[in-house]
Amino acid sequence: MVQKIPATVVTGFLGAGKTTLIRHLIETAGGKRIALIINEFGDLGVDGEILKGCGIAGCAEDDIVELSNGCICCTVAEEFLPAIQKLIDREPAPDHIVIETSGLALPQPLVRAFNWPGIRTRVTVDGVVTLVDGPALAEGQFAGDAAAIDAQRAADGNLDHETPLSELFEDQLACADMVVLNKADLLTPELLEALTGRLREAVRPGVSVLQAAKGAVDTAVLLGLGIGAEDDMAARGEVHHHHDDDHDDDDEDDEDHHHHHDHGHDEFESFVVSRGEIADPAAFAERVAEVIRAHDILRLKGFAAVAGKPMRLSLQAVGPRIDSYFDRPFAAGEARETRLVVIGEAGLDRAAIAAALAA
Question: Which residue has the higher pLDDT, 328 or 245?
Answer without folding.
Answer: 328
